[in-house]
Amino acid sequence: MRVAAIVADACRELLYRKTLWVYFGIVTLVLLFFALALRTDVADGLIASLSVMGLEGEGSAGSFRLGGGAEGGMGGLTAARFVRGVQLGAAFFLYPLGILLSVFATASLVPRMLERGTIDLLLSKPVTRPTLFASRYLGGLLAAGAGLIYLVSGLGAILGLKTGVWNGGFLLSGLVMALYFGCLLCFMALVGVLFRSTTITTMITALVFFVSLLARWPHENRDWPLLITSRVWRFAAQGLVEGLYHLFPRTYEFGQMAASLIMDEGAIAWGPILGSLFSGAAALAAAVLYFARKDF
Fold first, then answer.
1. Contact by Cβ (8 Å): 66, 52
2. What is the pLDDT of residues 259-268, one digit of tens each?
3. pTM (2 decimals)?
4. How confident is the model at residue 157 (pLDDT cuts 50, 70, 90)?
5. What is the pLDDT of residues 211-244, one digit of tens each?
6. Phi, psi dihedral angles at 249 (to 5 degrees)
7. Angle at 32 between CA 28 and CA 35, to 5 degrees
8. pLDDT of residue 169
9. I want to staple 107 with a disulfide (CB 3.0 to 4.6 A). Which of 102, 170, 181, 202 is the partner?
């Protein structure tokens, strides 16, 4: 019960500071845009007509575009392929946006907790420091994760109602990205307890996101060290790349996995998930250990 109270208090704090309200407001506007702008007519599993904000669609069996005019027709485009194409495009733009909004919504959770007065009140509660910190983390994860699930389930429901196609892979991709954010939130918690600054937490989290994304390219392309003539510098560069790749959550792999699930072209890849969970758990454990031993 005490843990549940701390988790609920963390969610209420985010709501009080309006960050979650802005987050859910932006997601709601995105869903309203899809609901009002998209018009489809489906017959026997094929898209008979399509328009977005008044722009008529024209397509073929494998793709579609807007602005082609109704005279072009939809060329036998199936509703299932249309839905997956829209969901893939939405995931490409909206998943990074959702992660970014989640970072902004929760970046203040740990620094605010460590403010004088707030930390004194929290430490007076009859719970251990590791339990207190882990409960705050869980509250932030539930609040931000709810926003990601709201975005995915809402968009999936809109497309399902308009086309009759319900893609379970899209919902699963949203759960995968919520899991990715959970790993990223571990690093946010560590940075927050070390620097006690919302701004620094946001900046370093964004750096973790992009460094993880960029480190994947040299990790997959094994020939690049040959460009470095010095054996010492070559070994150091390889060690740095591999260290960064395995240290942070696998941003690229999670995005690739989400796309495969949406298009029904692959299953969940457990390697990147387990590796990211391990690195996230290590960061959270370091944050909890530092918080437990620090004199506030």
1. yes
2. 999 988 877 8
3. 0.89
4. very high
5. 999 888 888 887 777 677 788 888 888 888 889 9
6. -60, 145
7. 140
8. 93
9. 202
* Cα 229 from chain centroid (whole Å): 39
With tokens 């560069």, the residue in question is: 237
Cα–Cα distance for residue pair 56/108, rounded to 1 Å: 44
Per-residue DSSP letters for the chain?
Answer: -HHHHHHHHHHHHHHHTTHHHHHHHHHHHHHHHHHHHEEEEEETTEEEEEEETTEEEEE-SS-EEESS-GGG--TT-BHHHHHHHHHHHHHHHHHHHHHHHHHHHHTTHHHHHTSTTHHHHHHTSSS-HHHHHHHHHHHHHHHHHHHHHHHHHHHHHHHHHHHS---HHHHHHHHHHHHHHHHHHHHHHHHHHHH--HHHHHHHHHHHHHHHHHHHHHHH-TTGGGG---HHHHHHHHHHHHHHHHHS--HHHHHHHHHHHHHT-----HHHHHHHHHHHHHHHHHHHHHHHH---
* pLDDT per position as a tens digit, 59-106: 665 666 666 555 555 666 788 888 898 899 888 888 888 898 889 889
Q: Which two tokens stand for residue 222?
A: 């094994």
Sign of CA dihedral 87, 92, 93, 95: positive
